[in-house]
Amino acid sequence: MAAPVIGVFDSGFGGLTVLRELQKVMPAANYLYFGDTAHLPYGAKSVRTVAKYAIASAHFLESRGIEMLVVACNTATALALEDIRAAVKVPVVGVIEPGAQRAAEISKSRKAAVIATEATVSSHAYQRALHKFGLESVEKACPLFVPLVEEGWVEHPVTEQVAHIYMDEIFRDGARGADVLVLGCTHYPLIRSLLRRVVPAQVEIVDSAESTAAKVVNQLGSARGQGPAGTLQCFTTDSVEKFCRLGSKFLGHSIENAELVDIEK
Ligand code: DGL
Known about the structure:
This protein is about 45% helix and about 20% strand. It is of the alpha/beta class. The protein has 2 domains: about 5-95 and about 210-260, 3-Layer(aba) Sandwich (Rossmann fold); about 95-210, 3-Layer(aba) Sandwich (Rossmann fold). The strands form 2 sheets. It has a 6-stranded parallel sheet, with helices on both faces. Strands 6-5-7-8 form a 4-stranded parallel sheet, with helices on both faces. Helix 2 packs across helix 3 (about 75-85) and helix 4 crosses helix 10. The structure holds D-glutamic acid (DGL).
């Protein structure tokens, strides 16, 4: 059985946390990763703009022969998943539904807290998805986490202090009684250990990246991803040097090269 060719799309480096989980569960798959770094961050942009860039990126990956597209970016999933699905022929998996489903599987209080970018929170995509699985939810934008993680401050007193402020706000206000916290942004898995120290002990942390990887395995069949390590090709719309340098931190191993692509042509 041939190893699958999977496209993974994100606004930049963050989606490499999803690729990292995919490589763990389907090591033999061949991956094409597209980071639209020229237009980063998506988290503060409008639906129209995010959809335009996401569709152009999806078309690019489709033209390279992928058989499935994983939209690793929470913001692009929240704002443009249906538009992306309509624009390509291959099956498209987003990160929100798998994260919501996992939260529903483990929550006993039937209440979840979600942290994400400004745009994801404003769309209420997580709230709708959680509601579908019978969970009430409270969402909170944590816009400072993305730049802090990109600065490499994943174990830093400043990040810890910021996390305390955000988590105090969310768990003191609406999220009292929530027993699950959904990490609704690609960057947050990198501060998972720090968040573990800050969020109330009874609250379980759900990483959408892990749940999304599990869904992909489910759809493609786990046998197809097993075997010797497959290939990885990376594409970026801005500096290749920066993509390889920063991306390696998100992926957990080095990225030797990436191809510069212009999606606005
Ligand atoms: N990838 C984005 C997300 O998961 C975070 C970075 C951005 O705002 O572009 O929402």
